[in-house]
Amino acid sequence: MSAARPKILLLGATGQVGWELARSLQPLGALRCSTRNEANFSAPADLEAHITQASPDVIVNAAAYTAVDQAEKEPTLAHCVNGEAPGALARAARRSGALLIHYSTDYVFAGTGERAWRSTDSVDPQNVYGHSKLAGERAIADAGGDWLTFRTSWVYAARGRNFVRTMLKLGAERDTLRVVADQIGAPTSARLIADATAQALAIALLERREGQFLSAIHHLCAAGHTSWHGFAQTLFERWTMIAPDQPVALRTLSAIPSTEYPTPARRPLNSRLDCSDFEVRFRLTLPPWQQGLDLVLAELAEAVSAR
Ligand SMILES: NC(=O)c1ccc[n+]([C@@H]2O[C@H](COP(=O)([O-])OP(=O)(O)OC[C@H]3O[C@@H](n4cnc5c(N)ncnc54)[C@H](OP(=O)(O)O)[C@@H]3O)[C@@H](O)[C@H]2O)c1
Q: What DSSP line would sit under 209-263, residue for residue?
């Protein structure tokens, strides 16, 4: 591996996390982004061939099948993209001596109890998406080689499909919204994930050079926690301060239990993740979730005022 300027291959650069990684990884090496056309996760064998041809020193995989409810209807595709394809990536990485960075989810856990899940806790996914992501984690570990899997939660950004953008759209149109208040987790901005990944990668490259690297699963999300209802409440409060000119029709934001908002995929109630081993290893203090929210709302406000 070229110590000075490693070749980094980013997959899934059009997604929320991938978009931010395309910025944050720039200073760390020669960055190439492969699109779905070049690297299709629904054809894992072709994917392996693409990696071998690109011969990167580092692969960062932000591509995934993330439609949690739709996955209940498309389990085969979800397992292919989230389970088999990461295994193919990991085998290609091992053969070429590349480091693989991959993302997984809080949905690998059952969601019982109230304490934050540690990266070493037993997993027990409750839906097809969670099972498919767990299959990916295991396929990567089984392939051997050098890898890091970061489990994150409740991802949002100024672009893409996410809770913040959906809430702002609905809040501009409706005077009442009902939002689930018994699922607890840490809303995490894609920007935080990307910035923390860049720092983790810099340290992982050092560890590899010094023969100190250990493949591992870590948890990576913002500090603190809230419910979806608490998240919505905070985002509307801050939005009216950050973008006072923007119309908000919303008058009532009701807190409801998950039982009153049935979805095809069952969601865990407790999605808290303990990130302490990530913070120690990569020498970071993950900021409170509200900080990432303010940055994304400011970006959204900027975008609407520029229209
Ligand atoms: N979103 C969340 O709340 C959440 C929570 C926990 C963990 N995660 C994990 O975090 C990571 C990043 O998620 P995200 O929210 O950034 O995802 P996202 O916005 O949904 O983006 C998904 C990316 O995957 C690509 N992709 C999907 N199917 C593909 C295929 N068959 N072949 C090649 N590329 C494909 C998409 O490409 P196109 O643009 O071509 O569709 C897009 O670039 C994922 O591993 C996800 O499981 C997400």
A: HTT----EEEE---BS-EEHHHHHHHHHHHHHHH-TTS-----EEEEE-GGGS--
Say if ligand 1 is within 6 A of residue 179 CB.
Answer: no
In the DSSP assignment, the letter for residue 7 is: E
What is the pTM assigned to this prediction? 0.97
The CATH class of the 7-162+188-224+273-286 domain is alpha beta
- Chain length of the chain: 307
User: Which tokens in the block code for residue 190?
Assistant: 């894609």
CB atoms within 10 A of CB 104: 23
Q: Where are the domains of the chain?
A: 7-162+188-224+273-286
Tokens of 163: 């809770």
Say how many Å lie between the CA of residue 53 and the centre of ligand 1. Answer: 23
Q: Coil, strand, or helix at residue 64?
A: coil
* Cα angle: 179, vertex 286, 157; to 5 degrees: 45
Contact 57, 8 (CB under 8 A): yes
The two three-digit tokens of residue 6, written as one number: 């490693």
Give the model confidence (pLDDT) of 82-139 as tens digits: 999 999 999 999 999 999 999 999 999 999 999 999 999 999 999 999 999 999 999 9
Q: Active-site positions?
A: 129
| Rounded Cα gap, residues 65 and 84, in angstroms | 12
CA angle 116, 201, 43 (to 5 degrees): 85
- Ligand 1 atom showing the smallest separation from residue 77 Cα: 31
Taking each helix axis from N to C end, the angle separating 44-54 and 85-96, rounded to the nearest 10 degrees, works out to 30
CA-nearest of 132, 147, 126, 117 to 66 is: 132
Task: Give the distance (Å) from ligand 1 centre to CA of residue 33.
Answer: 14
CA distance 79 to 236: 36
